[in-house]
Amino acid sequence: MTEPPRQQATGRRRRRTRTGTDLSQEVYVDAAVNLIERRGAAVLSARTLGAAVGAHPSALYRYFAGVDDVLRAVADRMIGIGLQRWSPAEDWLSSLANLARALHGVYVYDFPRAGYALANRTTGLPNEIRAVELTLGLLVDGGFDNAAATKCFVVMSDFLLGQAMLGSAVVTLPSEIRDADDGSWVDLTKRLPATTPHTEAAAPHLRSMMVQSSFEASLQMMLRGLAASPRT
Questions:
Q1: Residue 22, beta-bridge partner list
Q2: Which residues are CB-contacts of 38 (< 8 A; sequence separation ≥ 6)?
Q3: Whole-model pTM?
Q4: Most CB atoms within 10 A, among 87, 89, 95, 214?
């Protein structure tokens, strides 16, 4: 797996382990990301993190209040990577679309196990705050007042994180299960009763659309809704 870009952590302190590693918040976050992607978020503990960085389990508490703080830092790093990849466009709506694509890609394709485990988390950390400020600023550029911009931000956030959780869940399925699920749509017409004329008529479209991500199509529908929404 490609080493994740590192996001600077605040208040970091370094201490060398018995194996010669300089401990820091970043080192623990690196270890957490790798553990999650290899074994899942449930495996994270002071013991597994300590083993991963070559330190006693108690060393974790010099840098974090507990494992949940590590998870929040992982989520904030993912947001930071998405922000690094974001490129503003010529208008506010296209800029929002680029931001959504950048964040979705990090959660679903770069770190899918972490994305699935952490898409529902609020970090309260600098990168999340940067993302909130950026999104609200773009909505204000689109003419929304503060209340309307906030409502649109909540809707867009829920859409993006829900899509990220769904996408990462699909990506992390074993290939044989994904193939079986896709096959159910491909062979749909063989199993339809006579009482489902609408499904039968749509079957050729379902065969192609249901085996692909709906993210881009859903994003375009949401953006059209944003563009048409009241500004106050």
A1: 16
A2: 1
A3: 0.88
A4: 95
